[in-house]
Amino acid sequence: QQPVQSPQAVILREGEDAVINCSSSKALYSVHWYRQKHGEAPVFLMILLKGGEQKGHEKISASFNEKKQQSSLYLTASQLSYSGTYFCGTLGSSNTGKLIFGQGTTLQVKP
Amino acid sequence: DSGVTQTPKHLITATGQRVTLRCSPRSGDLSVYWYQQSLDQGLQFLIHYYNGEERAKGNILERFSAQQFPDLHSELNLSSLELGDSALYFCASSGYSDSPLHFGNGTRLTVT
Q1: Considering CB atoms only, which of B2, B56, B97 is closest to A41?
Q2: A81 by DSSP, 3-state: which?
């Protein structure tokens, strides 16, 4: 039931791009993306809803393939501030209110 | 500042004891979620309340219980504490299911 994220860790140089994937074995109602910096609370990045609606920050882009139950988060022209752990969270298609997070992807951006 | 308040920030207690963690959601938010995060681990879903009613439950131990009060604040009660319960406990609130979760700063529980 827990979504699977890949890769587990990424190391980038400033200005490089990265893609983080999130995959579920169940039909989904929505996918959430959050970033957590060490010692801090997770912060909202994006929600992708069944049917194509997206809500989130303008500088973050993501996709949601409902048929494949997969989502991807695209980080372009990475900055040092992008470093942290990225979590995807999924709500099942019946929208029971059980938002389950993946194991996280650690992103490190180096100068 | 997310607008979600969790108290206390830190809690140190002994095995076998009972503690209560408190969460005040953002103004206007009806949903409260509780998550457990062990050292360098992911966010484990515990329970979700909506407007005072339990909406969804995760793999929450029987020693753990929660409730959401009429003023929408929530409490997570942990009893018969074990060393393995040491973790960061996050509360998050949202308006409805299509809304982002806003996380509090967490309560760090240490069981000795």
Answers
A1: B2
A2: helix
Q: Residue A19 carries which side chain, given as an amino acid letter?
A: V
Tell whether A92 lies on the interface with B, counting CB pairs under 8 A: no
Consecutive H or E run containing A62: strand A61-65
Structure tokens at B88: 């960061």
pLDDT, tens digit only, all 111 positions of chain A: 899 999 999 999 999 999 999 999 988 889 999 999 998 999 999 999 887 777 777 678 899 998 999 999 999 999 999 999 999 999 887 777 889 999 999 999 999
The structure tokens 């457990």 sit at B36
Please report, for residues A84, A105, A108, B91, the alpha-carbon distance to residue B40 in angstroms, rounded to integers and kept in the order given. 12, 12, 15, 18
